[in-house]
Amino acid sequence: MRLRCFCMETTKIAGVEVSRVGLGTWAIGGTEWGSVPEDVAIATILNAVERGINLIDTAPIYGRGRAEELIGKAMQQHGRREAFYIATKAGLDWNSRGVFANSTPDRLRRELEDSLRRLGTTYIDLYQVHWPDTLIPVEEVAAVLAEFVEAGKVRALGVSNFNVTQMEAFRSVVPLASDQPPYNIFEREIDAETLPWCAKNNVAVLTYSSLCRSLLGGRVHRGMKFGDSDIRAVDPKFQEPRFSQYMTAVERVTEFARKRFGKSTIELAARWVLDRPGVSVALWGARRPDQLDSIAGVMGWKLDADAMTEIDRIVAESVTNSIGPEYLTPLVREK
């Protein structure tokens, strides 16, 4: 039985129409969120497309290439490459000591070819620099990526985790289509400069961690423990005493969502991101098809100014020791 496709909101990135909810595939990679059977992962990707999601966001670091391979297999099964808007990344390297930012020309050229091979495609819709490499000028990185566009292997370029100064440097060399920062009810660092700058300069904003590593997904509870292979085991938000503060905020947001809108926590949290000025796309992570079910409840309504103010009040009162996603920052590579 085919799913009935609800009315997915859309926007445009570099002139191409994309779904305002994108599938994030970090978890599907299977290394930081627990393993995912191949058939389940592929079914999740295809299920997302069936629901009207065409933007699939991935990266080589997700499962050390596994996520891209799974997307490639899903596209092959589906049969229509044009039904997918593939946004992948480059610029991270890893070894036994950890993960490092690496945007050297040789690394970028090798990563592009590896991603094309794993994805089983001749082009990438949106190619993003995953993290800034502080050891190489941004302009040099942009110049290398411009070669990929000229060669027809990449259709648009974006960045992730860049600040305004870095984005200005990037677009001084080549058009910048998008920025991908972390953003959710609890992590709002981009409000001050990034969102206004992107809106002013027609740069699409794709937010990751829209549900704050599932903290706003409705399944996390007080006292919950996470295995060593789970990224949340090292996330300061999930360590006491912060965890209890964030859970208090989640519980209050849950009650507010139910009473005010008849919505779940996850529906309100995603709607909050989509209704913020300047946000183009909210990425939604999923490991199984059923984890996409709540997306239907995100569409077709809006948060008004009073609701936004009340959510601000709940967070400010509940979380007195807030912290961002700084723990995700990669190491500086050796020169």
Question: What keyword list fits this structure?
Answer:
globular, eight-stranded parallel β-barrel, 335 residues, three-stranded mixed β-sheet, 9 helices, alpha/beta, disordered N terminus, TIM Barrel, 15% strand, single chain
Give the low-pLDDT segments.
Answer: 1-5
| Protein structure class | alpha/beta
Distance between the termini: 55 Å
**Chain-averaged pLDDT:** 94
> Which homologous superfamily in CATH is the superfamily?
NADP-dependent oxidoreductase domain
Taken together, the total number of domains comes to 1
The first-level CATH class is given as Alpha Beta
The proportion of residues forming helix, as a percent range, comes to 25-40%
Provide the CATH topology.
TIM Barrel
User: What is the alpha-carbon Rg in Å?
Assistant: 19 Å
Q: How many individual β-strands?
A: 13
Level-2 CATH architecture: Alpha-Beta Barrel
Shape: globular
Proportion of residues in extended strands: 15-25%
Strand order of the largest sheet: 3-4-5-8-9-10-11-12
For the biggest sheet, the summary is:
8 strands, parallel, barrel
Number of helices: 9
Spell the H/E element sequence. EEEHEHEEEHEHEHEHEHHEHE
